[in-house]
Design a protein that fits this description.
Elements (H helix, E strand, L loop, with lengths): L1 H53 L8 H17 L8 H11 L7 H28 L5 H49 L4 H11 L7 H15 L4 H12 L2 H16 L3 H66 L1
Length: 328
């Protein structure tokens, strides 16, 4: 009898242990599968975001990416020891961010392009002056080579500043219309992030609204990947470098922290930005007469002088010529 009980108890314990082991292994496999599925979902969302922001041809390497940028980076790495950079790298990083470039690795590429521009343009000016002077080493050749080097140094910075100004101008123009739509969506009951997503989904992208749309996509991407709203908003203001965006972001952060009405804050910001846009338009209109003065003096006044004083001058010359002929 005892032998039968022991045998039954042993069989029960073995079966119970096997079931517990099988359940633990199944739970571990399920946890691993859930973790892999979560990571796959995050990576898929990240890829969709990148493809949406970069466009269908965003991952196709162009000639610039395959040839020019690696050469520029290699050149900068070789000569950066001999260049007094100072705060140049911080300035380049800041303006590249303002221009919409997202990769931090583009800073050495830009500085390398700047070095290439100095060598190419400075060398071209020097060789042309040397060929015209028919001497390889001369003071005019060195002078024009120095001018070309300075121009080559400033040219990439001027191009980058132009891109930054154009992009910030488009963002500044897009912000008031976006705030009007955002106020309507928030007053209708949507959350701010939901309203931003709704506007992005239903608004037709245009070249004028594309920079601001990209920044909003990056903001939503930061929120989706776990960043808190305040930090994502501050990054949005820092990336654009537009004062109106920074003011809008600070007002929203203050409204969230103080518990004020977000819809009312957005309405006040919308009215303020609309008035600012009207004031900027009036300011540009008042500058038009001043800007028209140089073209008038250069192109219009000479033609007026020729048309008025030309016939008088011809008559005067004829009369003087007749008097001189009679005197002779």
């Amino acid at each position: 009898m005892w032998i039968g009980l022991l045998a039954g108890l042993s069989v029960f314990l073995l079966a119970y242990g096997a079931l517990i082991t099988w359940g633990m292994m199944r739970q571990q496999h399920q946890q691993v599968a859930e973790r892999v599925a979560t990571l796959s979902t995050v990576e898929a969302k990240k890829r969709r975001l990148q493809q949406h922001m970069l466009g269908p041809n965003g991952f196709q390497a162009s000639f610039t990416e395959r040839v020019i940028l690696p050469v520029a980076v290699a050149l900068f790495k070789r000569i950066k020891v001999y260049i007094p950079l100072g705060g140049q790298m911080d300035w380049v990083q800041e303006h590249l961010t303002y221009a919409g470039y997202k990769k931090s690795s583009l800073v050495p590429a830009f500085l390398g392009i700047q070095c290439l521009s100095v060598l190419v343009i400075g060398g071209s000016f020097y060789l042309q002056a040397a060929l015209l002077g028919k001497t390889l080493i001369s003071l005019p050749a060195l002078f024009f080579g120095s001018i070309g080097a300075v121009f080559g140094y400033l040219l990439p910075m001027m191009v980058l500043n132009a891109k930054v100004g154009a992009r910030q101008g488009l963002i500044q123009k897009s912000l008031p219309d976006f705030l009007e739509l955002l106020v309507i969506c928030v007053e209708a009951g949507l959350s701010m992030d939901g309203a931003i997503l709704k506007i992005i989904q239903h608004q037709t992208p245009t070249p004028n609204t594309l920079p601001w749309r990209e920044e909003l996509m990056r903001y939503l991407g930061d929120i989706e990947f776990g960043m808190n709203r305040k930090q994502a908003m501050l990054l949005l203001g820092e990336r654009t470098g537009v004062e109106d965006v920074k003011t809008f972001v600070n007002a929203l952060i203050m409204a969230y922290e103080m518990g004020a009405s977000v819809a009312q804050t957005l309405r006040v910001q919308c009215d303020t930005l609309r008035n600012k846009r009207l004031q900027r338009a009036e300011e540009k209109a008042q500058k038009i007469p001043v800007k028209m003065v140089p073209p008038i003096y250069i192109f219009l006044f000479p033609a007026i002088f020729v048309s008025i004083f030309g016939p008088l001058g011809m008559i005067l010359i004829q009369n003087i010529g007749g008097l001189i002929g009679k005197g002779l």
